[in-house]
């Protein structure tokens, strides 16, 4: 009994072509998926830094609106040495906050920012703001110092 094998080569070619196309589609889907993972990783790293590693002021929470230029940060004095006077908060692309206030050791303070961002953006787009905090130790009678964050405030506009 002799079988005809004329269609076997064409069938194998089509099966291999289908496998290659599926692998290509999966690769493209993964490449499109990973940038969002990278942004989420940056947000997580920034949160870990500002909530746990930053000294003497931690920023425990922050939000920035895409329109209207409003933002909010919640600062905490993590220094056990006593109260500190915040003289200035400088955040990239934001109007400087020259409000002077005292934060006791362990206390938090909510700071409202204006001009962040200075132009309207799309909700969901990513921001990365550098932060610098000028402060005076011992509630204002000590030495003037500046805390510059090694990581920015990273997140998505609401």
Strand content: 25-35%
How large is the count of helical segments? 1
Q: What's the total count of β strands? A: 9
Count of distinct structural domains:
1
**What is the typical, i.e. mean, pLDDT?**
86
Q: Which CATH C-level class is it? A: Mainly Beta
CATH architecture: Sandwich
Largest sheet: 4 strands, antiparallel
For this structure, the CATH topology is: Immunoglobulin-like
The assigned structural class equals alpha+beta
| Shape summary | elongated
Please report the distance between the alpha carbons of the first and last residues: 73 Å
Question: How would you characterize the overall build of this protein?
Answer:
The protein is 29% helix and 34% strand. The chain has a single domain (43-156), classed as Immunoglobulin-like (Sandwich). The chain is of the alpha+beta class and 158 residues long. The relative contact order is 0.18. The strands form three sheets. The protein has a four-stranded antiparallel β-sheet with strand order 4-3-7-8, with no helix packed on it.
